[in-house]
Design goal:
With 115 residues, the protein is an alpha/beta fold. It has four helices and five strands. The protein has one domain: 3-Layer(aba) Sandwich (Hypothetical Protein Ychn, Chain: A), CATH 3.40.1260.
């Protein structure tokens, strides 16, 4: 049975919890789960520019073409505050707390690594 897993991230690329979260997303997708990530605070920088984390997220999102089910949403106001709006990996969507609520409400499991 496919589960809907939500991850809520708030730590940036240098955090151990972020590295763990990225590995977890990859494993959850490999097992056929539907994964939705909401990044807020410093986590909006994960998918910006040409960092290793942005490349990993971009690769995970590209798997969607072959059936992987991943949504990655960054909080728009936080992206503005960190100066990364418009610099996100292809496939990352700008959102707000309404999107966070929708992701959490539809999930079977909600994880908040590092919180």
């Amino acid at each position: 049975m496919v589960k809907r897993i939500a991850l809520v991230l708030n730590s940036g690329a240098t955090s151990e919890s972020t590295a763990t979260a990225l590995a977890l997303v990859e494993r959850l997708l490999a097992r056929g789960n539907r994964v939705s990530v909401f990044a807020h605070d410093e986590a909006v920088t994960l998918t910006a520019g040409d960092t290793s984390a942005a490349r990993i997220v971009g690769a995970l999102l590209r798997r969607g073409a072959s059936g992987a089910a991943l949504d990655w949403v960054v909080e728009g106001p936080a992206a503005d505050a960190f100066g990364v709006r418009g610099r996100q990996a292809h496939g990352v969507v700008q959102g707000d707390h309404h999107d966070l609520w929708a992701i959490v409400r539809s999930a079977d499991v909600v994880l908040t690594p590092g919180v």
